[in-house]
Write a structure and sequence with these properties.
This protein is mainly alpha-helical. The chain is built from 16 helices and no strands.
Length: 401
């Protein structure tokens, strides 16, 4: 997947030469997630999670195979990237909530926070290797973009087959059966009734929707600002991923403690500042340093925010709460297009500065608006429950779950 992110951005920019094209590919990815995302959470809470993941990831693998073939036959056009983005976005609308909620079926509740951070670590580790490989393979004439897409297709199929070894992830039996629409409404009501979870979700929206589109525009930064090719683009991606891996290891030490609640907004604001720094970096060397900070703070925020969200959510609602939180990735795709238009008008570096400043402002506003007794009481209750659960885990006998 991480190899394909680089290849897709490089190909989109190569076919059009426009930042808005990078945004258009992301909006094609985001719209189906916005439309189908809540349904993905409903199905994750109603169906065996493994089966849902198998079907959706197979669709994603076939979608990748189609693009690889079109590139190899030299028949690739920009609209195909848009169509492929729609299919992939639809697949991940169901994969994301099911995969994240599956964690609560595999580990005890007291270990959910650390399990989420472990998953985040594995994802960030692939970001270290994937972009570098993609950048290097694109530059090799007998591999190129088509070869990268063939390799990612093989990767998607392998990932699908490994899931056959997982338990089914069956939903818990219900005393009363309700319609899927009622399940969706109940999930939204659940989030609204818990101020601390609502704040976590809204902060995720602000950070990912406004700040994370920087990923979409790295091809433009590499080519137009720093004057480097696919290898330089891969290096930018990899340096960001290295920062994310290091930060994820660091947050693992307090993901199950009360300190996570204080760290979450600080990491979000610092991430916005790092994106501003990337926009101000005048050359590739300072850009690489900025990417370490951007990737590290992004990974740290995601690890802490996801751990707090999952550990604060009851098991029956995990899929639906995750689907609501993951809508931020849909808005990330939707925001990328107007940000791309802005970048074409004022310059990509100026757009990055505006994005980072926007993240810092929105997070600060959310923190000020959340200074109510209801939010404070709910946060204290969940922080205490998290601390108690962590203590029970540490005192469990060796070899116990």
């Amino acid at each position: 997947m991480q190899m394909q992110v680089v290849a897709r951005g490089y190909l989109a920019y190569d076919l059009t030469g426009k930042n808005s094209a990078l945004g258009a590919v992301m909006i094609a990815f985001g719209v189906p997630q916005l439309v189908l995302g809540l349904w993905g959470g409903v199905l994750a809470d109603r169906l065996p999670k493994r089966n849902l993941l198998l079907v959706c990831q197979m669709v994603i693998a076939l979608n990748s195979a189609w693009l690889a073939t079109m590139i190899e036959l030299d028949r690739i056009e920009f609209w195909m990237l848009v169509v492929a983005g729609v299919v992939q976005g639809a697949g991940f609308a169901f994969v994301g909530p099911a995969r994240q909620a599956f964690i609560s079926d595999l580990v005890d509740r007291s270990a959910i926070g650390n399990a989420v951070v472990l998953q985040q670590l594995s994802m960030n580790s692939t970001r270290v290797v994937g972009p570098s490989l993609a950048g290097a393979f694109i530059a090799v004439s007998f591999i190129g973009i088509a070869g990268v897409y063939y390799l990612t297709t093989i990767g998607f199929f392998l990932a699908t087959f490994t899931m056959l070894r997982l338990p089914p992830g069956n939903p818990k039996p219900r005393e009363r059966q309700v319609s899927p629409l009622a399940d969706m409404a109940d999930g939204l009501k659940y989030v609204r009734s818990r101020p601390s979870i609502s704040l976590l979700v809204l902060t995720s929206f602000a950070v990912i929707m406004i700040g994370f589109p920087y990923q979409s525009f790295l091809p433009s930064v590499a080519k137009d600002v720093y004057g480097v090719g696919s290898g330089g683009l891969g290096a930018l991606q990899s340096f960001g991923a290295v920062g994310a891996v290091v930060a994820t290891l660091m947050v693992a030490s307090f993901a199950q403690s009360k300190r996570a609640w204080a760290a979450q907004p600080l990491l979000a604001i610092a991430f916005g500042g790092a994106v501003v720094g990337l926009g101000l970096a005048p050359n590739i060397w300072l850009g690489l340093l900025a990417m370490i900070a951007v990737g590290g703070l992004a990974g740290g925020f995601q690890g802490v925010n996801n751990a707090l969200t999952m550990s604060s959510t009851e098991s029956d609602y995990q899929g639906r709460v995750q689907s609501i939180s993951m809508l931020s990735w849909s808005f990330f795709g939707l925001a990328s297009y107007p940000i791309g238009i802005l970048a074409d008008r004022i310059g990509i570096q100026q757009a990055l500065v505006a994005m980072g400043a926007g993240v810092m402002l929105l997070v600060l506003v959310l923190q000020l608006l959340s200074r109510t007794e209801a939010v404070a009481a709910d946060r204290r209750e969940r922080a205490n429950a998290l601390e108690i659960g962590h203590g029970e885990l540490e005192s469990a006998p060796a070899g116990g779950r």
